[in-house]
Write a structure and sequence with these properties.
This protein has about 250 residues and is of the alpha/beta class. The chain has ten helices and seven strands. A five-stranded parallel beta sheet has the order 2-1-3-4-5, with helices on both faces. It has a two-stranded antiparallel ribbon with strand order 6-7. It is elongated, with a radius of gyration of 24 Å. Residues about 35-40 have low confidence and may be disordered.
């Protein structure tokens, strides 16, 4: 260090200060993200499990032989009493659920209700979290098998994964960046084939929500979740398939 001239020493000191400053900035950003999103990041799973437990606790006081809607946030936000007036349909949707989560809670949240009909909508979170097609389809197959084994008279309807649309805001970009519409179409095609093999009803709500290759702008609040008009379109399609299944 003594052999270095002033200019060289000064450069070393400035470089050290720059490195220390960068480390401080990075740590500051990490702490800021933690304080803003930490609770959501670390408690999302526990919130899902708590909701599943709450549903399980309602089983003893919930009507049997009904119609159960089970799935992710698309169904949790679905106001069934609004779109199916006069029908005592049962909502068992949980936000952020993937197919594995629905499979894990299927017994306590669905099968124990002994429904006559189950409508299942799950898959966008599998795609969003890079669950392989094989794992997703395996979980869906297990869900169907479990219902068919324990409730052989129960009618099963599998609702398609809905399209997305990237809007010009951070929330929408974040929600849709890993949910590519081409990927969704490919997975839906495989899901439809699985339904044929398992002899259950596939509901192609996906196509009714399209505008070109994307989710219709008028049907969504954020590019992923539906608004009132979107739910009306979905409800019309689901109602049509329910009625047709009852006739058959």
């Amino acid at each position: 260090m003594k052999k270095l001239n002033y200019s060289q020493k000064r450069q070393i000191v400035l470089s050290a200060i720059a490195v220390i400053t960068l480390i401080i900035v990075v740590l500051g950003c990490v702490l800021l993200i933690y304080f803003i999103y930490g609770q959501a990041l670390f408690s999302a799973k526990s919130i899902q499990l708590k909701k599943a437990e709450e549903y399980a606790e309602l089983t003893s006081t919930t009507q049997k032989n009904g119609v159960v809607f089970v799935g992710d946030s698309i169904f949790e936000l679905y106001k069934l009493d609004k779109y199916y007036k006069g029908k005592d349909y049962i909502n068992r949707g949980i936000s952020s659920n993937k197919s594995a989560d629905v499979l894990a809670r299927l017994q306590s949240n669905v099968i124990d209700l002994e429904p006559n009909m189950v409508i299942i909508h799950v898959g966008t979170n599998d795609i969003g979290h890079f669950v392989s097609d094989e794992d997703y389809l395996y979980n869906m197959s297990q869900i169907i098998d479990n219902i068919q084994t324990q409730l052989p008279e129960c009618k099963i309807l599998i609702d398609s994964i809905y399209p997305t649309r990237r809007l010009n805001n951070y929330n929408s970009i974040n929600l849709t960046k890993t949910r590519d519409n081409k990927k969704i179409r490919n997975v839906n095609e495989k899901l439809k084939n699985l339904c044929v093999v398992k002899n259950v009803k596939y509901i192609n709500t996906h196509n009714q929500l399209l505008n070109g290759e994307e989710l219709h702008r008028d049907y969504t609040i954020d590019g992923l979740h539906l608004n009132d008009l979107g739910y009306k379109v979905a409800s019309n399609e689901i109602t049509k398939e329910i009625n047709q299944l009852l006739i058959d």
